[in-house]
Amino acid sequence: MLLEIVKGFIILAAIFIPLEIIFALHSQKVFRRDWKTDVIYFFIGHFIGKATGAIIVAIAFSHFPPIVNLELQNTVASQPVFLQFLEAVIVADMGYYIAHRLLHEVPWLWQFHAVHHSIEHMDWLAAVRVHPCDQVFTRIWQIIPLYWLGFSQATWAIYVLYSAAIAFLIHANIKFKFGMLKWLIATPQFHHWHHSQVPFVPNKNFAAQFPLLDLLFGTMYMPAKKMPHKYGISDSIPAGYVGQMFYPFLRMMKNAKSKFKTRY
């Protein structure tokens, strides 16, 4: 498995690094600050994703059997794969949209998501800087509806590849314009605004793959002729992987102590 992950990393680097050099949105180093930290996230995050995916599915089927409707699952799986894929994207991204808004709006959840928003230089590898608790939380909202609906294995295979490709694309430091597709497929033009330091913009563009969800719920922000120039958050997040793992818990403990002192 490790060899496959290494191959995947090399392939992604071979695709995105030249694109980011030739079509750079912002002038920045390929091996930016914290690049090594995000490489660690790439490898560890893969194993966490595999493990949590299996656990989530097991919990979904063992604890909520009445929700599983075999007739519905057979109907869904009997559809053409292309149609299933479109449905899977919408269903999974609806779950992600809800989870993502909660990560921004619930204070203790934000402590985990802040790690991802600590990125100050956007590129393809920035996609993987996700705290494991954040990763598990969002996968629950994405995976369980898809399994309950019973999409076919072929659909799953296509969706997993598409989902990964979009995640790297939307964080990439590239200035491509996608025309009308930008309303149907998430792009850097859409997602970079979510990471910007413009005060009101980080609470926009919550979808990961289907931007029309933000248009539907009034959280869309995608100006036609400008892009953000500054990314990150005001919070001070540790630079290394281990420090970022402990940051949310230490922050919550600090907040709890502060509230306790205020009351007593």
TrEMBL record:
Query: Which keywords belong to this entry?
Result: Membrane, Oxidoreductase, Transmembrane, Transmembrane helix
Q: What class of enzyme is it?
A: oxidoreductase
E.C. number(s) listed in UniProt: 1.-.-.-
Which terms does the record give in the GO molecular function aspect?
oxidoreductase activity
Tell me which InterPro entries the record gives.
Answer: Fatty_acid_hydroxylase, Sterol_Desaturase_Related
User: What residues does the Fatty acid hydroxylase domain cover?
Assistant: 87-219
- The name of this protein is Sterol desaturase family protein
Q: Which organism is it from?
A: Microcoleus anatoxicus PTRS2
